[in-house]
Amino acid sequence: MRSTICLVLAILFAGAASAEPKRTEPPDIVSMANSLRTTKGPDRAPLSEKLILAHMQYADKLEESSDFAGSIDSLRKARGLTANLPGDRSRELAGQLDVRMTLALWRQSNQGRGLHAQYFKGKDFDESIGERIDPNIDFLWNIANPVEGYDGDAFTARWTGFIVGPHPGDYKIIALFDDRCRVWIDDVPVIDEWKHDGSHASGIVRFTGKPQAIKVEFFDSGAAARMSLHWALVDARVESVIPPDAFFTDEHVAARMAGTPILPPKGFGLSAEYFQGDFARPVFTRVDRDIHFLWDRAYPEGIGEQFSVRWRGFLRAPKAGNYRLTIVHDDGIRISIDGKKILNDWVNSKVDEAIVHLTGAPQPILIEYRNRGSDASLSLLWQIVDAEGNPTLIPPSAFFNNLKTAENAP
Pick the residue with more confidence: 300 or 353? Predict the structure, then answer.
């Protein structure tokens, strides 16, 4: 079971240059736009649709180079052209363009967040297998591959960027890992567990309230892999995963946006209700972007070790087919899709599997989880039945809390 959760996140947290680049629209767009000015009658709608699709492709290319302003401009031009199409087709493309603009605006507002992640084959950081932007360091790969397409076992990872502490003062940095890791902040070693395999290490760092450089290196020699970075006040008994809000690829963005929470794009993610006990007392609600939680004993804020969560929304697979869902849970879990219960393991802590037919269209999903005490975790993975390779974490791009967004998302 090796993969990555990067499908959307690597794009969503991509950095960009602060200055808006000069751009020239492709010749085919310019040519079609000029022709449309003089085209009338029945030829106007098909030419408009062709131009809309060209704008969408151009917007995708601009986003790949982190030119979000240019991408948004191209999408807005395409949105205006939908008025030239017949009713149903106009509404269909307008809905798709609205979701694309929502995503582009979200990505633009979060430029410079996350950490620059580099993944390598083996132990020596000399054979790259992929790069991306990771929102934070909280991975329970188990035996899943960290990068799409990598079929090896041993790998290393290096994360670099900036971290901003909650408040100035001394904090404990805690690493939960399998097999080795080391951490530097402001080029000062905080954790160095590189010579021997381990699972837990900590060190003390003084946060200044300003952006501070961070580098984290990780090595997995094979089999199960895990890397999660937590923090806590020095004398506190409770720790928590360092959230995406604290990490940045750009120092200037870090200084400007530190303390600003990250919310999923509108319509994406699952609606979550958190309870104390077994759905006994509601504590808070929020939108969670996916189902990948390595709480251990760093329980959700304001909740004790005995808690439960209910997630509702829609799941959309990239294509129709029979999927094997892999659920890694500690403790109980219940899952229903399209109103049919596909898993009911309310007592045990283990790895479960379920075969389910996914249509490629949005399907209602209900997930209920409870932790009876001690360690807490939950991850959902999937794979088409009989497909080669290993299951992958179900990415944020597959979860929605709004049906229209789910229907129109790219």
Answer: 353
CATH class (in words) of the domain with range 115-257 = mainly beta
Spacing of C-alpha 236 from chain mean position: 29
Give me 172's structure tokens.
């404990």
Give CA–CA dist 160/377, Å, rounded.
26
Q: Are 381 and 326 in contact (CB under 8 A)?
A: yes
What is the token pair recorded at 342?
């596909």
Q: Which residues pair with 323 in a beta bridge?
A: 356, 384
Per-residue pLDDT tens digits for 251-304: 999 999 888 878 889 999 999 999 999 998 999 999 998 998 877 777 887 788
- Residue 388 pLDDT > 80: no
Residue whose entry in the numeric block shows the structure tokens 């020095």 = 234
Asked if the domains at 115-257 and 270-408 fall in one CATH topology, the answer is yes
Q: Residue type for 115, please?
A: L
For the chain, the straight-line distance linking the first and the last C-alpha, in angstroms and rounded, comes to: 26
Q: Please answer whether residues 326 and 383 qualify as being in contact, where contact means their C-beta atoms are separated by less than 8 angstroms.
A: yes
Residue ranges per structural domain of the chain = 17-109, 115-257, 270-408
Cβ-proximal residues to 253 (8 Å cutoff; 6+ apart), any chain: 15, 111, 112, 113
- Tokens 């509108």: give the residue: 266
Alpha helices in 127-280 (DSSP H): 251-257
Q: Please, which residues have CB within 8 angstroms of residue 22's CB and are 6 or more apart in sequence?
A: none
- With helix as H, strand as E and coil as C, how does 79-102 read? HHHHHHCCHHHHHHHHHHHHHHHH
Q: Does residue 392 or residue 363 have the better pLDDT?
A: 363
Measured CA to CA in angstroms, residue 154 lies from 138, 143, 144, 222, 390 at distances of 18, 10, 11, 5, 15
* Whether residue 345 has a cis bond before it, omega within 30° of 0: no
Which amino acid would we find at residue 79?
Answer: R
**Amino acid code (one letter) for 137:** I
Question: What would the CATH number be for the domain defined by 270-408?
Answer: 2.60.120.1560
DSSP 86: -
CA distances from 120 to 127, 155, 219, 222, 286 (A): 5, 6, 9, 13, 35
Alpha-carbon dihedral sign for residues 375, 324, 334, 311: positive
